[in-house]
Write a sequence for this structure.
């Protein structure tokens, strides 16, 4: 791939040398990213349709051909698709597993925005097979990862600095969202609010340009039309503004339910003693049992969402589909399938809002709008609750519907849904997955680098040790001869019994203690705080700060307390300085 792109890269490098302002070059690069991402969205759409046709000999919505479909296909074909996805992810790129956005966030946080070049192609194929075979996931997650991979690849080819590399990844993510949903403003806000976290002009301008370029390409193929075909939206009564906050609370609870079940499912499949590549097949089999009763949750589910928006689904069916979609998506993505969580969030929101509207019509007939209006607002509210990005949720629903009248109810509901979800879950559906891996994006790049460094790589393997029965006079002599700050006391089995600092022996520096034969076992601090070689430098630094100590014994994992080494604070600080220096060099 590098050989094919080398002539193009040489042209751009020459252009960059001629161009005096690097920001202008970045704008041209953003246009290239938007163009490739827009074409990638078109390609992904066609491959997805082809994959569904290969499995079912139909490329339309499931509700259009479900009646003539052999029921055994809903059990076996999602499982077959899952097995294919497992093999593709296993031998292609592990980053293609799951809903994609956390992988992009991880690359931005830990790798300076560097994503492997193969990820885009693997993600296209894996997600198309997963969704096409019936997997309950969305198209936007793959497109975020595909676009981000394109942006990262071009940034690496043209050797942009690290901070600009992060912007290029943001350009690709924005382009992916914009092209998928025909929503350039929401694509821009998604990239800046959720991924890059930088609204400065140097980041904002390229991201906007890339998003607009990708949208122009998608509109050239599919036209300037909103994603959903909606009936006329209107507020029937002023009193409805007092009802929407309750929808916000319900949507926030639905978002928490979705997040909790999704990651519980992921934990369940991780604990299974099966090869990882087989787990998506098992997830597909479980998904098939849900599809048998609720075909509405098949794939992306836009057809069912449109039914809810037009008020064509019974109230209890709307409620049942909330739980069915949560389970179906959890089986798909929790087992290792490939796809996004944005469309499932929209689906759950549509059904939650539709059910709420159905209840409101029963309780307040004549004072509320049809249930479809609440389904529309519920879509944005659940997205806001899962992503904890209400601005993006509000704008993306506005652009997808093209109806300005929904803005005020959407603002009320999305904010309350976000507050409700954040009060219960300390993190979004994206950041919680990173936290499970020990990555806290709020801590900054240096802190997360320290989380990747292990104690075993920095510990001193020759710690000063003494037996429990060593006398005080010999302890003092050992401090002098070994020039050590701490002495590690070992019991008769050679296990760590305690630790002695020079400060610990000061109370015993008298004639009486010398005469009584005071031993190390009496002086030492029993059961000292320890770390293992597998612990992170970040956690070791936190322990030192919490206990006010400057050195930690390193013992074997499993609680054996067999001493392996010691970790002085100076080595922890050296690791921190190394992480900071590395970043400064990359950005220079």
């Amino acid at each position: 791939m590098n050989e094919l792109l080398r002539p193009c890269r040489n042209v751009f490098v020459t252009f960059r040398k001629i161009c005096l302002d690097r920001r202008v070059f970045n704008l041209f690069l953003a246009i290239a990213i938007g163009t490739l991402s827009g074409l990638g969205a078109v390609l992904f759409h066609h491959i997805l349709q082809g994959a569904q046709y290969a499995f079912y000999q139909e490329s339309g919505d499931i509700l259009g051909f479900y009646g003539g479909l052999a029921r055994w296909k809903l059990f076996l074909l999602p499982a077959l698709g899952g097995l294919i996805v497992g093999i593709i992810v296993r031998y292609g790129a592990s980053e293609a597993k799951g809903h994609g956005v956390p992988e992009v966030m991880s690359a931005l946080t830990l790798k300076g925005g560097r994503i492997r070049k193969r990820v885009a192609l693997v993600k296209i194929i894996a997600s198309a097979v997963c969704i096409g075979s019936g997997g309950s996931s969305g198209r936007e997650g793959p497109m975020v990862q595909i676009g981000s991979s394109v942006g990262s690849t071009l940034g690496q080819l043209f050797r942009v600095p690290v901070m600009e590399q992060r912007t290029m990844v943001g350009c690709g993510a924005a382009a992916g969202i914009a092209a998928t949903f025909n929503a350039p403003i929401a694509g821009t806000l998604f990239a800046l609010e959720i991924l890059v976290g930088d609204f400065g002009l140097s980041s904002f301008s390229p991201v906007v340009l890339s998003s607009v370029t990708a949208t122009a390409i998608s509109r050239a193929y599919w036209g300037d039309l909103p994603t959903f075909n909606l009936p006329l939206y209107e507020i029937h009564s002023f009193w409805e503004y007092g009802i929407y906050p309750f929808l916000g609370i319900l949507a926030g609870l639905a978002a928490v339910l979705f997040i909790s079940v999704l990651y519980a499912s992921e934990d369940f499949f991780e604990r299974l003693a099966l090869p990882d590549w087989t787990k998506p097949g098992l997830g597909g089999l479980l998904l098939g049992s849900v599809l048998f009763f609720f075909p509405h949750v098949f794939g992306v589910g836009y057809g069912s969402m449109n039914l809810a928006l037009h008020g064509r689904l019974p109230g209890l069916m709307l409620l049942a589909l909330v739980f069915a979609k949560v389970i179906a998506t959890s089986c798909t993505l929790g087992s290792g399938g490939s796809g996004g969580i944005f469309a499932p969030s929209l689906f759950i929101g549509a059904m939650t809002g539709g059910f709420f509207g159905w209840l409101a019509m029963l309780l307040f007939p004549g004072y509320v709008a049809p249930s479809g209006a609440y389904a529309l607002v519920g879509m944005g509210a659940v997205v806001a609750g899962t992503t904890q990005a209400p601005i993006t949720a509000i704008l993306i629903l506005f652009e997808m519907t093209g109806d300005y009248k929904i803005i005020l109810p959407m603002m009320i509901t999305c904010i309350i849904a976000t507050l409700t979800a954040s009060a219960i879950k300390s993190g979004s559906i994206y950041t919680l997955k990173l936290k499970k891996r020990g990555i806290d994006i709020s801590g900054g790049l240096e802190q997360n680098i320290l989380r990747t460094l292990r104690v075993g790589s920095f510990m001193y393997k020759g710690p000063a040790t003494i037996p429990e029965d060593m006398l005080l006079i010999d302890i003092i002599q050992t401090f002098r001869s070994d020039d050590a700050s701490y002495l590690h006391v070992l019991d008769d089995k050679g296990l760590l019994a305690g630790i002695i600092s020079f400060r610990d022996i000061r109370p015993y520096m008298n004639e009486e203690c010398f005469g009584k034969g005071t031993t190390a076992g009496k002086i030492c601090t029993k059961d000292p705080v320890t770390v293992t070689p597998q612990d992170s430098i970040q956690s070791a630094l936190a322990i030192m700060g919490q206990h006010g100590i400057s050195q930690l014994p390193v013992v074997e994992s499993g609680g054996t307390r067999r001493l392996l080494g010691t970790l002085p604070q100076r080595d922890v600080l050296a690791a921190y300085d190394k992480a900071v220096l590395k970043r400064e060099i990359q950005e220079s």
User: Anything to note?
Assistant: The mean pLDDT is 83. The beta strands are 465-467, 486-490, 496-501, 525-526, 551-555, 563-568. The two ends are 27 Å apart (CA to CA). Residues 22-56 form the longest helix (35 residues).
